[in-house]
Design goal:
By secondary structure, the protein is mostly helical. The chain is built from 15 helices and four strands. The longest helix has 42 residues.
Length: 477
């Protein structure tokens, strides 16, 4: 009636795990929920990419721009859900946990695929951090310029270098980088997510005001027109770069596994993660649609690469300033969301290599009275500081906003968002080669690869043009 003694013991043990301080893998109890996961994901998705969507829509036109946003959101949601089922192996509910994207790939596809994934993932994560450094500095310069024009008049020569702002952000990120892991980032992601809604709403409001006042730009079904706005070659390259910008706006898969690893074990992590994916993708797509469509309607075929800069630096200068301040706060948090997997990998590698090293494992508590307020680790302090310095230096060397976004999008979208999740799903579920489902999944793979190659070609061409017109470390805006 009450079950055997073994069953009672197992139930009691399970209850202890549920109510105790540790999870089934011996790690501290995870406390994440669908809402904390959604905050992390929204922080990762809604970033600098949202600012280029008006420009991207202008290159593709009404049909192409809206259609591309819908297709990319659908693909991203589908493959993110495939990835969620791979967190535990072999069973998605009771199997062994895979703590990182790389571990998922190793468990399902083997060591060689894991190495390829590592190269792409960490290059992309580093690239995202560099891209966010560039974007945050542009927003900080925009605040400086608008206040300069407000004080000195609209005819003043208000041009400033991005470099001091990049250095300032880098110093700030060195302090934030001492946050030990993803589990301690919830407050930062929540603030960042609020900021992303704030500046997106301001951009949407300013665009709507411009449209209602009758000052909207000229738009067309197919976007910028050959022979009027651009040449045929320029139109092609710009369309390719626009695809890359939209891909960048949906590139966040490389941090999903680490986010899933913050969730409570009940209900099942994959079910909660799928809900968080759905909430996040639908929310961000709604904002993307408004930013892309209203931004295009406001500026027409001459939409700027960064939507907020298109409203000028004049009146209402304080509102544009506020939006740019929101961007900086958001990107400061998003920087950590993308950097944490890199930090975590370095920490785990060093711990395995030198398990008895005090440099690697030693923690030095910093106390205020009798209370420990922070624990300092030398590996974290030195290793993460060096990473931030490298990222800041590279950002200063190549501050070309739209082209860098397109290149990052092309670099990360296909392999991390599509290829690995699809191949892991096929391997995990033993989908028969040559079956209809296998064929459709491979078709999705090929089509997304072609999009990534086109975006990469367009972005490389754009970076080449930008390098011809400006010098690294000496750009002023």
């Amino acid at each position: 009636m009450g079950g055997t003694k073994d069953e009672e013991f197992q139930k009691g043990n399970y209850k202890f795990e549920e109510e105790g301080e540790f999870d089934d893998d011996g790690k501290p109890k995870r406390t994440g929920t669908v809402w904390t996961a959604s905050a992390h994901i929204i922080t990762a998705i809604i970033g600098s990419g949202v600012l280029s969507l008006a420009w991207a829509t202008a290159q593709l036109g009404w049909i192409g721009g809206i259609g591309t946003l819908v297709i990319f959101s659908g693909i991203t949601l589908y493959t993110s859900n495939l990835l969620a089922d791979c967190y535990r192996s072999p069973d998605p509910v009771t199997g062994k946990r895979n703590y990182t994207y790389m571990e998922e790939v190793r468990a399902n596809l083997g060591r060689s695929s894991c190495i390829a994934c590592a190269v792409v993932q960490y290059a992309n994560l580093t690239g995202m951090v560099i891209g966010y450094t560039i974007t945050a500095s542009i927003s900080m310069v925009a605040v400086h310029k608008s206040n300069c024009f407000h004080r000195k008049g609209h005819g003043a020569a208000c041009k400033f270098s991005n470099n001091p702002y990049m250095i300032g952000l880098g110093i700030f990120e060195i302090f934030l980088s001492q946050i030990p892991n993803f589990h301690k980032l919830t407050w930062l992601s929540t603030v960042a997510a609020i900021m992303s809604f704030g500046y997106s709403s301001i951009g949407i409001g300013l665009a709507l005001t411009r449209i209602i006042s009758g000052n909207g730009g000229r738009t067309t079904i197919t976007g910028v027109e050959v022979g009027i706005d651009v040449t045929a070659a320029d139109k092609t390259w710009r369309m390719f770069r626009a695809l890359g910008d939209i891909a960048f706006a949906y590139t966040f898969s490389q941090v999903l596994v680490e986010i899933q690893d913050t969730l409570k074990s009940t209900p099942a992590e994959n079910k909660v993660m799928k809900k968080a994916n759905t909430i996040s993708v639908f929310t961000t797509t709604a904002f993307y649609m408004m930013c892309g469509c209203l931004g295009y309607a406001a500026f027409g075929n001459g939409a700027p690469g960064n939507m907020l800069t298109g409203f000028g630096f004049y009146e209402p200068f304080w509102l544009v300033d506020l939006a740019n301040i929101f961007i900086v706060i958001h990107l400061a948090g998003a920087y950590q969301v993308f950097a944490q997997p890199v930090y975590s990998k370095v920490d785990s590698w060093a711990s395995e290599k030198w398990p008895n090293s005090t440099f690697v494992k030693g923690n030095y508590p910093i106390k205020l009275g009798n209370k420990t307020i922070f624990s300092l680790n030398l590996l974290r302090l030195i290793g993460r500081t060096m990473f931030v310095i490298l990222a800041t230096t590279l950002a200063m060397a190549m501050p070309f906003f739209n082209d860098i976004l397109a290149f990052l999008g092309s670099l990360g979208f296909w392999p991390l968002t599509v290829y690995f999740p699809v191949e892991m799903y096929i391997a995990k579920n033993n989908i028969k080669r040559g079956s209809m489902k296998w064929f459709m999944l491979q078709l999705l793979n090929i089509l997304c690869l072609l999009v990534s190659l086109a975006a990469a070609a367009g972005s490389i061409q754009g970076v080449g043009e930008a390098l011809g017109s400006s010098k690294p470390f000496q750009v002023k805006v």
